[in-house]
Structures are given as C-alpha cells and as structure tokens.
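pasting for ref. prot 1 ->
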Amino acid sequence: ASSHGLKQNRLDGLKFDISIFTNLSRDHLDYHRTYKDYFNSKLILFNKLIKKRGMVIYDNDIYYSKILKKICKNKNLKSLTIGKKNSNLIIKKHEYFGNLQIVEFEFNKKKYSFTTNLIGKIQVKNLLFSVLAASRSKIKFNKIIESIKYIKPVEGRLEIIGKIKNNSKVILDYAHTPDALKYTLESIKEQFGQSSISIVFGCGGDRDKDKRSIMGKIANQYCNKIFLTDDNPRYENPKKIRNQIKKKINKSKLVEIASRKKAIRIAIENLSSGDILLVAGKGHEIYQEYKGKKKIFSDKKYILKEINSKNAKLFKNWKANILNEKCNLGLVSKKLKINNASINSKNIKKNDIFFAIKGPKNDGNNYADEAIKKGASLALVNKLGKLNKSKKVQVNNTLKILTDASKDVRKISSAKFISITGSSGKTSLKDLLSFSLNKLAPTTKSTQSFNNKFGVPLSLFNVKKNDKFAVLEAGMDKAGEIDNLTKIIKPDFGIITNISYAHIKNFKNLDGIARAKSEIINNIVEGGKIILNQDDEYFNFLKKIALKKNIHIISFSKKNSLS
C-alpha cells in the first residue's frame, strides 16, 4: 500500500485483516514535501482501512512504534511486534556466512532458525513480517519457516547477478534516494566487510534535486571507486545532473562516464578477486529516458553480457585468478589447478604451487625444478633458469606475491578467522582448537609452527573455499611483527594466551612484550572478539586496550570471577 495510493484514496473501499508497517525514509518526499504528510499518508492504512479488531504488525525497535502502539490501543486493534527485546518475535542471533544470512529467533516461547540468500538485515525483517502475517493466515508455523529457503530476491532489489570466476560480485539494486542508497551500501559493507566496493549510479532528472549531492556524499563514504553515469535525465541536461552529484565525491575515487553501458562495462572489467560492484538506481527497469524518449536498456541484461565476457578471460581456479592479478601468469593454461602452496620443494604434491623464496640460508629458486618434477602445477621464481619454463612465472618478489595473494584469499573466504598469540602455548592451543572445530565444520590451521612472515601468508593462502574456520598462529621476535601478521589475518577472534619472558632479550621488560602482543587487538575486525586469560598479570592492561577499540572481551580464569 504505497503512500501515494493511500493519499489519493486508491485503496478506499478495501478493508484489511492484517496491516504491516515496515519503515519510513525520504523515498517520496518529492511528492509529500514533508515527513509529516508522508507519515500521515501511511497511517491511513491503520486508521481507516483495517477491519475492526484487525491485526497490526510492526518493528518495535523503530521510533514510530510508539505511535502505532497508541493507534492499536485507541482502535482496539491486535498487534504483533518484531524486535530485539520486549516483542512477540525476538531476534536472538543474526550472522553472515558468505552470501547467506543465518537467523535464530524466538516466538511463542519456541526457538526457530532459518538461512536465506537475501542480502541485508531489512530483508530479514521483511521475511519476519511475512512470517507473522502468514502465521495469522492459518498456515502451520513450521511449514512457513521451511519455505523461507525457497525465497529469491525481488528482481532488482539487492540482487546478485550472474557468477564471476574470480569471486567478485555484481549486485543490482533500484536504490535512487539517499536513504535507500545508504541502506544498500551499509548492507553490502556489513555482509561483505573485507571487500572493496565500487558503484555505478546517477540520478534522475526533473526530480528531487536536493538529493543529488547527498547521494554523492553517501557513495563517497562507502565506496572505493565511483563510476558516475546517467540514470534517466528526462528533460534535464545530464552533465548538469552529474556535476551536482559529484560535488561531495573525492576526485581520486571518481570515474565519470556518461554512457551507462560503457560505465557498467568498465566497472566490471576492473573487478578484482572478492570485489563488489553495486549498479544502483534503475533495478529491473528496461529503459532509459532522454528528452521524453525512452530507449531500451536493461542494467541486468548488460551486466550478464559483461560477466560472460569477463569470465572468458579468467581462470577456472579461484586462486589462479588471484595470482594472475598479482603477477600476470601470461600463457599459463586457463585450466591451471592449484591445491596448496609450499615454500619447501620436499613437501610438494600434485597440483601444488611452489613459491621460490630466498632465505638467509637457502635460495628457493634452486629447488623450483625439483618442485615441478614432484608435480607442482606452477612455480613462482625470481629467475627462470633453463628448464620447465612453461611452468614457471618470473616475479621480482615471491614473498610479496604470496602475502598479497593471501590477503585476497582472506577477503574472499567466508570462514571465521581465529588468530592466536602469546608467549607460550600457541601451537598446542592451535592444534587442540582446530581439531575440535574440525569435528563441527571444515577447518584449516597453521602447519606446524608457521607463525612468521613466511608461515602466516602460506597458511592463509591454503585456506579452502568451503572452510568455516581458520586457526592461525602469530609469533614474534620484536615489536611490530604481530601487527604486520594480524593485518594480513584480520581475525574475527583473537586469543592472547599469556605474557611471559619468551623473547625477553629483544625487549627491555615484560611491559614491552605485553604491548607487542596487544598489537593483535588493533586488527580484529569490526564486531570481533578477543579472548584473554584473566589470571595473567597483564589482563587489565589488555582489557583496557580492547575496550578502547570497542572489541568484545571473553575471559577465562581458574581463580577470579569471570568478566
């Protein structure tokens, strides 16, 4: 029931059993002019068009819930609410795993759960509104929950289009107002927090001109690259519209391309592994309007065309695509297989990749041929040598390539990353924890004590696509090393086992070791957690740093009460 339709009396004569209030933003202020008129138009559904003793469903966490509660009381209407507390349906847990949202909730003192591939928390809220409405329509509750897994996104609403071999994504959305664009970008950022976000968008002509610079500012806030293009200019000068949008956009981020077709093509061409492109403003529309003339143009169809073109140039293997972006693999077959990576030729198995790293004692370049002979599908080297040139790729710095590639594996992986540091017990804890987690779901761990600048990127690169957990050590000899290593890992969970005298020769005192170990806290992802030993004398020191960084603390103790 749109606010336009309600205000223009287009729904008069109907009486509803159930009315749902979702939210209120500035979507139609060009028509209503004021929030008051916009809101009052929506309230027609609840004040005039609902049956006696009808049912009102709304979000208890929003500002307008108080007004809806009052309407229900005055009109003797029933109500059902959704919220984090003091509601009929209480959301107990919400988390992401790749493209999926996992939700647990409580209703009528019973617990339920579901997964959905819809993007964005607001879509979860909409699902739950629908669940409550369906439950009032005499459909069995368990059947309702079972059906959620079959629900697909509305065409053009946070819709993932196609599939790209390098695990980048193109998302189509019809967001064309500041609130809608902000919500869409926040949803993407929250669910795919490690990804770089690009956007293709413009603004329509002859509509709400004040929103243009606001939308530019929002895009600038959330996006790494902005492809500014035409929407539906209608009778306005499209360049003038673009100029108004880009007032609040950093020049370093901006690529201005009038042709929407060309903007989409170049934006997709520029997608690296794990990146996300949002094509916003038009969604499912199949035309563009210039000076009263509508020409056929579908964002979705053109996105699919460009994805097919991009996929033809990509490798089948996701890690091969990552490597190709770091160092051109040239004529290497697009069917290249990569199982694991190794810097030790003795450990190579079939279809592994060998990184020839020059260490203080041995030069890995001298062992590249041995690695290929043992079955390596590829060797990254500093010098080609005379043999096996078709299976070698020459680069300047193999360790840098490995490290940069491992960062992209982290960006793409849906696993929860756990990083362990401390003066002692790291390896034992890693082995125990990974053994236990592997009983629940696929888990990768650091091999042996691979906890330095070589071992951490190597272990990270070897994380599998279906892993749900990765348990990695981070070791150190001096200050700054934990910071460097955990910047690569970006842990969801950090663990500091203890602070003691290991490596004291490189520090003035234990305080210096504690500060160095605390560097892990700096790189825990937003919403992440740190696990601390409350019996350690540096617990309060570490706790203070974590609280300052707004990191949730979990502690354990033999003798103290738990925090």
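and prot 2 ->
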Amino acid sequence: MDKYTDEEILSKIDNEENIAYGINDSQLSAARAEAIQYYLGEPFGNEVEGRSQVVSYDVQDTIESALPQLLKVFVSGDEVVRFEPKGPEDQAAANQETDYVNHVVMEKNNGFEVMYVWFKDALLSKNGYVKAYYEEENDVDEEEYRGLTDAQLDMLASDDNVEILEHTSYPDPSVAPIPVTPEMATPPEVEQENGDISIEMQAAQAFFQPMLHDVKVQITETTGHIKIKNVAPENIMVSVDAVGTNLNTARFIQHRELMSPAEVAETFDVDEDDIHDIMAEQDEFELESNARDIYSEQYDRAVDTSEVLVRDTYLKINDKRYRYVLVGNQIIYKDESCDHVPFACITPMIMPHRHIGRSYTDLTRDIQMIKSTLIRGQLDNMYLSNNGRYAISDRVNLDDMLTSRPGGVVRVNGEPGSSIMPLQHAPFPPTSFQMVEYMDNMKEKRTGITAYNQGLDSDSLNKTATGVAQIMSAAQQRLELVARTFAETGVKDLFMLVHRLVRQNVTKPDIVRIRNQWIEIDPREWKNRKDLSISVGLGA
C-alpha cells in the first residue's frame, strides 16, 4: 500500500467516525437511551399533574424473564463450546483446547458475569459487545527476611525481580568466633603496632566469623492474563458496511474509553508527560450521555478532569487492517500487522445485511406505552369514584368540600340537598381490562415470554444429548432461536478469540484444575489448524 502520513490517517478516521454507527448516530443513540428509560420505568413525559402517572414495566419484565432462560443453556454445563477434531489424530489436542479455553473464559474471567451483562446489553440495546485481549500486569509485594546466610542473600539478590530496600548484617550468634592470630590475617608487608590486631586482622576476623542478614525486599513479578470485559454499546463505533455481527467484515471499528494518563502511558508504552501535553491541547469532548446515567455518575466522574479519552481504532486500508490508538488528535500507538479485531458481538434478532439488530425493547416498547395509558385511565376512574366531583352553592364551606376523608363533616347554610349536587361520571368501560389482557397476549406472541414458561430444557438444543426430539411450543422456539443466534455468532467468535490469544501469548505450561483434577496444559503445542471447528452445544 501507499505510505500514509499521520495527518492522512487522522483524516480517514475522522471521516469514518462521522458516518459510523455509534455516538454520532443521533437516531441510534436516542433509541438506546429511550430503551433504558423504558426498562427503568421512567415517566413518558406526557404525564398530567393530579392524575395517575403509573408506568407498566413490560420491557423490564420481558428482558428479566428471557435472561435466566438464555443464560441457563450456556452456563449450566461444564463446556460452553467444544472444539471438535476433523480426524482421530486431533482428538487429544481438541479435548485439551476445549477444557482450557472454557476454563479461561468461565473461571479466570468469571464467564457468568460477562455473559449476563453481554446478553442484557443485547436484549436491551439491540447489540452487545465484549472485548478479549492479553494484558501483562506487575504484581508488587514487599517481604522481610531475617537471618539469611551469605549464600541465601546472594541468591536473593541475583533475582532480577527482587530489589533490596533495607539491609542489616551482624555476626551469627550461634557460631563461636574463630581466634585469629597476626600470622593468619596479616600479610608479611603489613607492620604490627605493639602487637595489636590491625584493620586487616579485623577483616579476617569477619571472614572467619559467619554473618547473618536481615533484609526488606520488593518483589516485582510480571504476569500475563487473557482478559474479557464488557463494552457498553455507546462506547463502540462500527462502520455501516459491517454485515451481521461479524466485526471482521467492518471497514472501521473504534472503542472509546476514558483512562488516566498513567494507565495510558503504561498500556501503550508512552511518556506520561506527553499525554499531559496532548490533554492540554485537545478540545473538550463529551461521551454519549444516555439514560443509564441514573445517579449522575457521568457528572461525578467529570470532577476528575485528569482522565483522557482514548480511541482504540481498527481501520482497513486497501483490504489490510491497521490499529491506531488516538489521544486527542495524535496517534500514540500503531500496529500495522493487525489481522483481527478483539471484539465479539451479539444481537437477539439479526437484520439481514445490517449490523444493528432488533432488541426485545423494540418488540415491547409500544405495548408498555399502551398498557400504561390503559392502567392510568382505570386508576383515574377509581380515584374519581372514591373522590367524586360536586356542584355546590356559595352556602357550602369550600374548605370542608376540598378535604375529602371518611366521616368528614361539610358545613352548609340551609338545606344540604339544594346546595350540594354530585356530578355523575361514566364508569370505565370493561373492555379496557380486556384490552390490557390483549396487549399481554400480543407481547407473548412477539417475544416468546409467556406466563406459563417454566424455562428451556437445557438439553433441548443439544442434538446429541438425548437423541429424542422434544416438541416445543412456538414461544419456546422463539427463545431457542435467540439462544442459537447468540451461540453461532458472538459466543463462537469470543471463544475463537480466546483460542487465538492463548496460542499467541501463553509461552509456558499452565497447571489448572479441571473436573477436580490438576492438569498441565502447554498451549505452545497447539497448532493453528484451519480445519478446527466449534460446535456450540447449548445444553448440559
């Protein structure tokens, strides 16, 4: 390819940001913000003071009913995925890779929590994203040792990971000192003064007397870990050419994240002072302020103005992918051999030829609005029945009429019947209750979440589990389809990412406990086999 300057790269990234799905897409951002508002049951904005303002929680009820049934088929067994061999010679390696990759995802990264947030993001905000990457960490510990011998001290000091902070030496009290004569310690050319032991003799005395050492050391151990973390949908930008959930088809992907200057400097091996200089020059930025900011977290976080917006960007140029990390308008890191993106994406309902799918919020949002309106009307009618309206003359005490309580007294001058007349109001039509039931039925048809669902059979999607075909209702089939969609898209991509990271970064055998047995696994022996397939067995 032609060599591009940093200015040209920045221009390309800027153009992609302006047309990509994400925070610059006002329609998508508004839909995601509204989805969270519906999930939290917040007011619609059409409320009237003095009248019912109740909100039905259909979006939340639907998502929270679907979530446990979807999670069950992924986390109830020992294996979320299985690497299947293509030949008998691959069987042992495939079994080892299956055990270890599942262990990395589910045990080392708390796979249940990752999938919980991942699935809820997708059900609520159309698409859910996770990021898998390899990270090295420095574990620093301080330790104190007492009574070390010279050999032990030398061995400790020879370790490159050990730094001696404090050191005190003294003669070993358990060993009697060896008498030293002038002939033993003093060279012939050294003169004696009145038979006293010279400095050389004192040194020899120390040589023949064993010493002990008390030390305080700092031990720095660098360990590498494969990390999987959830990424909020509003922090991901994807070019509109992406097809389905496979992000490797996208021309442009960007992950936006707030980080401290020290964290940026350590992660990308740059000078922290340079980061501060960039921050001083960059324009102010704002992240998408959406409805998940329930308790003004974004405002509270903004108090710390030292954080900087990092844009981790993956860009295709002439069919070759590059990685650029931007702070402000400067590129602080480049990777010109980036053959994949570290993200996996899921959506409950794939829209053909498009990246953004459909969520359960899209299916139930209008139902929540209609049901809330119907229930508000019913409650208003009940309030009116208990506290009716009256026509009164000027002979009635107005304060008494405005105070409605059981057994309350209303003072009237003259005949009450001629001064107070109740106003008749029409009762709420019974069909409104049928309408609420109709909306519930419509929600069940759209989502597959019914009042009678007891959860999916964890083996129902595993073709080899029982060999007996089970008859499923249309509602269960909808949930099964969502589970299969998750499995064959993002979940499969995530485990392939972890498999790649293990092969590339784990450079020594790892001893792990799998099925109550300690097993030594050496990923260096794994091959990059193109014929390796993944069978997502959705069941226990």
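The radius of gyration is 36 Å.
Residues 185-192, 283-288, 463-472 have pLDDT under 50 and may be disordered.
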